[in-house]
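Sequence design from tokenized structure. All designs in this work follow the same two-part layout: the structure record, then the generated sequence. An example of the structure record is given first.
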């Protein structure tokens, strides 16, 4: 893998943590991400929105326990971009 796959959008610390989490699941609830990253809902929303605008993440909403909950999932392009970024990081440190 070449260093050219380094992705500055994904590399930002919170977005990198979001992507690392999404790479291990089909989808994840915003509340889980918020708690895992230890950030406010507004910070999380801003970071997820950046990934969504790039076409890397899809956000969906569903009602559960009488409340509307938001979920995030990688798109195919997002998963590929994240894995390419990880490969580029490994090439840099390797």
């Amino acid at each position: 893998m070449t260093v050219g796959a380094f992705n500055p959008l994904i590399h930002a610390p919170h977005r990198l943590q979001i992507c690392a989490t999404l790479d291990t699941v089909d989808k994840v609830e915003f509340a889980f991400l918020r708690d895992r990253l230890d950030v406010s809902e507004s910070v999380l929303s801003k970071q997820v929105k950046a990934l969504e605008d790039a076409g890397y993440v899809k956000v969906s909403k569903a009602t559960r326990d009488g409340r509307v909950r938001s979920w995030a999932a990688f798109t195919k392009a997002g998963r590929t971009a994240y894995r390419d970024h990880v490969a580029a990081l490994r090439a840099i440190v390797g």
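The beta strands are 28-29, 57-64, 67-74. We note this feature because it recurs in several other targets discussed in the main text.
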